[in-house]
Amino acid sequence: MIAENLRHIKNNIPKHVTLVAVSKTKPTTAILDAYTAGQRIFGENKVQEMATKHDELPKDIQWHMIGHLQRNKVKYMAHFVHLIHGVDSFKTLKEINKQAKKHQRVINCLLQARIAKEETKFGLSFSDINELISLEELSALKNIKIIGLMGMATFTEDQEQLKQEFSSLKVFFDTLKEDFLSLDTLSMGMSGDYPLAIENGSTMVRVGSAIFGARNYIV
Ligand SMILES: *Cc1c(COP(=O)(O)O)cnc(C)c1O
């Protein structure tokens, strides 16, 4: 089933779009099914759960942290994490840099943009992102690399609203890229909305339930 779901999704996304298989709450056996079907990039939203899975699973897996990040947890993933999607402060970037340095690594980061109309979503406004990415102090952080932006749309079926949220981020991303040439990743789109996200410029989709089935509890 997992292999079949993966094949279906892979056939439906263009080559330039990276698929992150979101395996949060799912057992290692399910991840191995996806791995056997060729998937190498997995996303988790809890640092400890990701670290345990990293220990137990093949070492050529690229692990992405997609959840809201607590600074005191960065140290538990600094030795292996490939990309952190949800960075929303300079303080957090500093902590990631500090922990990455201990392992002589450079950790890739995405700044999380707030695109949803909902109150509950994390992330920075576009002007906050402009400010953060232009900070002089950022150039001193040699062990992080900001490679793009991440956004989560409102939890809604309203296609017009989703399209509007995705395309607003795409427009902002393109403007930002003119000044910051190293940005190349725009992470947006989940199981329910990834085709629309791709139509509106996503280069990385985070898909969980459409691969692994519904999760048993809300996280
Ligand atoms: C859980 C989660 C996803 C995947 O959600 P699905 O609807 O299961 O595809 C994507 N992004 C983030 C940030 C998540 O927490």
Structure in words:
This protein has 8 helices and 8 strands. The chain has 219 residues and is an alpha/beta fold. The chain has a single domain, classed as TIM Barrel (Alpha-Beta Barrel). Strands 7-6-5-4-3-2-1-8 form an 8-stranded parallel beta sheet. It binds pyridoxal-5'-phosphate. Pyridoxal-5'-phosphate is lined by residues 22, 24, 45, 66-67, 152, 190-192, 206-210.
Low-confidence stretches: none
**Oligomeric state:** single chain
What are the bound molecules?
Answer: pyridoxal-5'-phosphate
Say which CATH homologous superfamily is assigned. Alanine racemase
Structural class: alpha/beta
Whole-number average pLDDT? 95
By DSSP, the count of extended strands is 8
What is the annotated CATH architecture? Alpha-Beta Barrel
Shape: globular
Core attributes:
219 residues; alpha/beta; TIM Barrel; eight-stranded parallel sheet; 8 strands; 19% strand; globular; binds pyridoxal-5'-phosphate
